[in-house]
Specification:
This protein has 499 residues and is an alpha/beta fold. It is built from 19 helices and 13 strands. The protein has a six-stranded mixed beta sheet, with helices on both faces. The chain has a five-stranded mixed beta sheet with strand order 10-9-8-11-12, sandwiched between helices. It starts with 7 loop residues before the first helix and ends with a helix. Bound molecules: iron/sulfur cluster.
């Protein structure tokens, strides 16, 4: 098998796991998920704007598969002293090909600039800059400074055009990159050797599969594991996982009673082994104060990488939708909702309508995560005139998630406590599978952002998207209603059962 070329992204994949590198090169996935593609789109957009910091710069437009042409074009631009910066400059050394986001002319030397759409520099970012610095050095390019440009999430957008120099933070990473360069030749040798293998290398899946990225091959690599594989046990340490492996235990249900587990892990083991839910004896006490009457609340928010409205920051969460189910003292269920117009900052109308709706209803406000509390506190900070009303709402909030997490475990939870895992398990027949288009929070956020940015504007598409958003958010609060009802039933059965 001929040696495949390494690129910056393949090198990072190889640092995470050699098996992932092999699969990416020899059995690439055809489609990326919607979350990955919206991240890629954001990254592309941020990268495009970063070029505004280097006026007069010239883009090497050749595509990734035209690398030799891109290298030649880069060399021609470097030879032209009138060109102050080169975007997507291409270099190759040995079997390693890299594209540099910005190569900035600095007298006799060059500035290597890596653009990141994240709000901080992560360790793996430094590894890919180090690889680029290594290839440039091998190619004879004198790099006199190395910077990462990342999104400055302290930047507050004013009126009009984004202030791009203020939007980006420029950080000198020369020292950090230099210290990572020493290991690169050995890493490249190992990765090239891996890529020459004519069969998939064997690597046991584990903690490394989620760091720094959730590996796209997780389902494939764990397909032969038992459904209750020990890695699903919540908060299982690497040491405990190694202990179980050493004694040949792969299934949670096979973990011996004598094996040291946390109380929560023991509950999960017992419920999985018996196939029966485990209910805490004090579940009824934990549900005290949850009503009825009860309000059930859920928010959706977007977080634009590039601020859309004056006074907002990059990646600031901007709530645009709420759903509210209310059960009155007689047990009757009502529903109210709000979905903002997409042509203005949604927060003021969101807050006004929420305050009005909740002010007319009695009882605690039940949510399923700390998310709504966080968003309400942020709104109180942004709109001081609403602070007293928001504080009154905050005083009524009760979170059902800790009650589930600490009070009950059902074998059908699938080792998770999210509302989308818990509701179908506790309420047979309840689910999200029939929803058309939007069935999870990231898709809701992306969908509204597309309307706010104008990338979705056709009236039919907008109408379909708004209907999908309303249906999804309504389903989430209905899920919280159903989970609360199921918990009440479980607590009652626990009280009257054999104990
Ligand atoms: S799932 Fe884990 S073991 Fe499999 S390729 Fe990905 S990182 Fe490697």
């Amino acid at each position: 098998m001929a040696t495949a070329q390494l690129t910056t992204s393949r090198y990072n994949a190889g640092l995470q796991c050699l098996r992932r590198l092999w699969l990416l090169v020899h059995e690439p996935q055809e489609h990326m998920g919607s979350a990955a593609s919206s991240l890629a789109a954001a990254s592309h957009e941020v990268g495009r704007h970063a070029r505004k910091l280097f006026p007069g710069g010239v883009l090497v437009a050749e595509e990734p598969w035209q690398h030799a042409e891109a290298v030649a074009r880069t060399a021609a631009l470097m030879a032209d002293a009138a060109i102050p910066a080169i975007f997507r400059a291409a270099f190759a050394y040995g079997d390693v090909c890299v594209r540099v986001d910005v190569l900035e002319r600095r007298g006799a030397g060059w500035g290597l600039r890596r653009v990141k759409s994240s709000a901080r520099i992560k360790d793996h970012d430094l590894h890919d800059v180090a690889l680029q610095a290594h290839v440039l050095a091998q190619a004879g390019v004198i790099v006199s400074s190395t910077e990462v440009l990342h999104v400055n999430n302290a930047y507050v957008h004013g009126v009009g055009e984004v202030d791009w120099p203020a939007y980006f933070a420029r950080v000198d990473v020369g020292g950090a990159v230099e210290s990572r360069r020493a290991g690169i030749p050995a890493q490249l040798l190992e990765m090239h050797a891996c890529l020459r293998l004519d069969s998939l290398p064997s690597v046991e899946p584990g903690g490394h599969c989620r760091k720094p990225h959730r590996c796209e091959f997780w389902e494939r690599c764990t397909a032969d594991k038992p459904a209750d594989w020990v890695r699903h046990l919540p908060h299982l340490s690497a040491a405990r996982a190694a202990d179980l492996k050493a004694v040949g235990v792969e299934a949670i249900s096979a973990i011996p009673a004598t094996f040291p587990l946390t109380p929560k892990q023991a509950i999960v083991r017992d419920a999985t082994a018996s196939g029966q839910p485990c209910v805490s004896p004090d579940l009824a006490r934990r549900l005290h104060g949850f009503g009825p009457p009860t309000c059930y609340l859920d928010f959706e928010a977007m977080a634009p990488p590039i601020p859309l409205y004056a006074g907002t920051r990059p990646y600031q969460a901007l709530p645009f939708q709420w759903s509210l189910h209310a059960v009155d003292a007689s047990g009757t269920l009502h529903h109210r909702e709000f979905l903002a117009a997409s042509d203005e900052d949604p927060r003021r109308r969101f807050t006004e309508t929420l305050i009005a709706a909740l002010g007319a209803l009695a009882g605690p406000i039940v949510v399923y995560s700390p998310y709504e509390r966080t968003q309400l506190k942020a709104l109180a900070g942004s709109f001081p005139e609403f602070r007293p009303a928001i504080e009154a709402i905050l005083a009524r909030l009760l979170d059902l998630l800790p009650v589930v997490r600490d009070g009950v475990y059902h074998p059908r939870f699938g080792f998770a406590n999210s509302i989308k895992s818990v509701a179908p398990a506790l309420c047979p027949g309840f689910g999200y599978g029939d929803l058309d288009g939007i069935a999870e929070g990231a898709a809701a956020s992306t969908g509204f952002l597309q309307m706010a940015m104008g990338t979705v504007s056709h009236p039919e598409q907008v109408a379909r998207l708004r209907a999908a958003l309303l249906a999804y958010c309504q389903r989430d609060t209905l899920a919280t209603v159903e989970v609360h009802r199921a918990l009440v039933r479980l607590a009652a059965n626990r009280a009257t059962g054999p104990g």
